[in-house]
Amino acid sequence: MILKNTIFTLLFLTLVSVGYAQTAPSVWRDLSDVTYKIGQDEFGELYIPVFSDKIKKLEGKVVEADGYIIPFEGMFKPEHIILSSLPLAECFFCGSGGPETVMEVMMKSPIKYTSKRVKVKGTLTLNDKDPEKLMYILTDAQILAN
Predict the structure, then answer these.
(1) What are phi and psi of 90, to 5 degrees?
(2) What was the pLDDT predicted at 101?
């Protein structure tokens, strides 16, 4: 009986430690829960994001996002990047991804461009007012891995 309890306890502790070792789920999954309404400005129709309650709860929080830096020719600024959850060929600007798959990232310190996947951490701001900016903006960001 003691051996059985000891084995059960060891198995339980192993499963718990494996669960804690897993990385946090990607913020991109939560950010995909957005819909749109059609609005009007001086230039015509535009799609205005309608953020779900799940997304609204993330506003102002520090989040981590991994993805690919989108290299706009002649426009890459090492302190202000566009991050895509999808590789370049599939991203919002070049492929089949929607606007919920990209975010503006304002870096604390300039970074070097890389075509490899990177991970950043910063404070999430939601944008449903300024059509000149993306709907997700990460401020005060730092690079975690590349």
Answers:
(1) -115, 0
(2) 92
d(C-alpha 30, C-alpha 65), whole Å = 11
pTM exceeding the 0.85 threshold for the entire prediction: no
Going along the chain from its start, the domains and CATH numbers come out as 27-145 (2.40.50.140)
Q: DSSP letter at 75?
A: T
108 backbone dihedrals φ, ψ, rounded to 5°: -65, -40
Give the number of other Cβ atoms within 10 Å of residue 55's Cβ: 21
Residue located via tokens 């903006």: 137
- Using 50 as the pLDDT threshold, list the residues of the chain that sit under it: 1-23
**DSSP letter assigned to residue 77:** B
Q: 102: helix, coil or strand?
A: strand
